[in-house]
């Protein structure tokens, strides 16, 4: 089954060229099926790139998905054309009375700031509080994972001596979890961040469980006990070229970045990187959608007034 997107969304052409099954709004209206309603709060400055990456991962499933794109009202992106934002994005005020089966909150390039200093922090807090009653399961990425751990559980973030950038090997701490169905014993995932959360802080919180870690990159995936919240510090959705583009951007800014680890062949930036994490990225999103969204969400989410959860479908 396809992912339902707006007829004119730029991601449509990219995904169709990759033979990913997408469905336009017109065609979807003629099908008698209740699609999963997914909201993406896109905090990244390059919104078109990020939305395409996420839609690519969400489309690799037999479920039909209807996506709403959300931006903050208190900060408007200057790196995305205004007509694109007006055509395809809504704000929290537009959706606050709706219910969603799932939600993704992306990372953002604001790690150098304390959470309370971020321009849209108060708005983000209202959204994160709203997810407790209006969203079945939330998937937080990178900075959003750190922000949500801080907001919901008081987990601190710590600055790294150098930017963590590259492709890293991870191990599962909860290999029997449905989130890891089909995973290899070890798997690769990209990281690109200046801060970290620490295992010793998370392990003090009974409501949280560390699901996967990396010897080099540290904590990777954390979840709550019911599978309602996932906190992912990496970027499995990244394309092969994403880290290269970030590295070149940092070079142009005179930041003197280290060469991303385990990314360029022979650590040579003149050689094209290869995507070695794509299969696990698709599995990660497919398993989240299937086991923690589709199999736990009520059929009529609006009539239910608030999400209900099956204790048998928790993170284990």
Nutshell version of this structure?
With 316 residues, the chain is α/β, with parallel strands linked by helices.
- Within the CATH hierarchy, at the fold level, what is the topology? Rossmann fold
End-to-end Cα distance: 27 Å
Number of helical stretches of at least 4 residues: 10
Class in CATH? Answer: Alpha Beta
Uncertain runs are 305-314
CATH architecture title: 3-Layer(aba) Sandwich
The averaged pLDDT comes out at 89
> How much of the polypeptide forms β-strand, as a percent range?
15-25%
Q: Which structural class is indicated by helix and strand composition?
A: alpha/beta
Order of helix and strand elements from N to C terminus: EHEHEHEHEHEHEHEEHEEEHH
**General form:** globular
The tally of strands reads 12
**Helical content (DSSP H or I, runs of 4+):** 25-40%
């Amino acid at each position: 089954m396809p992912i339902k997107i707006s007829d004119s969304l730029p991601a449509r052409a990219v995904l169709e060229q990759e033979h990913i099954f997408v469905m336009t709004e017109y065609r979807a209206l003629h099908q008698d099926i209740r699609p999963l309603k997914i909201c993406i709060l896109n905090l990244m400055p390059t919104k078109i790139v990020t939305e395409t990456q996420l839609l690519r991962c969400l489309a690799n499933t037999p479920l039909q998905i209807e996506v709403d794109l959300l931006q903050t009202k208190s900060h408007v992106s200057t790196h995305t054309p205004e007509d694109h934002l007006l055509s395809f994005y809504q704000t929290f005020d537009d959706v606050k009375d709706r219910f969603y089966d799932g939600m993704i909150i992306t990372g953002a390039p604001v790690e150098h700031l304390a959470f309370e200093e971020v321009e849209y922090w108060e708005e983000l807090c209202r959204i994160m509080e709203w997810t407790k009653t209006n969203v079945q399961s939330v998937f937080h990425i990178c900075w959003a994972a750190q922000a949500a751990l801080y907001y919901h559980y008081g987990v601190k973030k710590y600055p790294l001596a150098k930017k963590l950038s590259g492709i890293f090997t991870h191990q599962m701490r909860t290999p029997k979890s449905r989130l890891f169905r089909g995973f290899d014993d070890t798997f690769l995932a990209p990281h690109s961040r200046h801060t970290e959360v620490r295992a010793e802080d998370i392990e003090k919180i009974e409501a949280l469980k560390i699901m996967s870690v990396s010897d080099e990159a540290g904590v990777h995936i954390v979840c709550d006990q019911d599978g309602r919240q996932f906190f992912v510090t990496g970027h499995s959705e990244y394309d092969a070229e994403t880290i290269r583009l970030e590295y070149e951007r940092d070079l142009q800014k005179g930041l003197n970045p280290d060469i991303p680890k385990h990314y360029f062949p022979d650590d040579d930036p003149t050689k094209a990187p290869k995507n070695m994490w794509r299969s696990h990225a698709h599995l990660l999103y497919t398993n989240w959608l299937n086991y923690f969204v589709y199999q736990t969400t009520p059929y009529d989410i609006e009539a239910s007034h608030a999400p209900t959860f099956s204790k048998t479908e928790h993170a284990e």
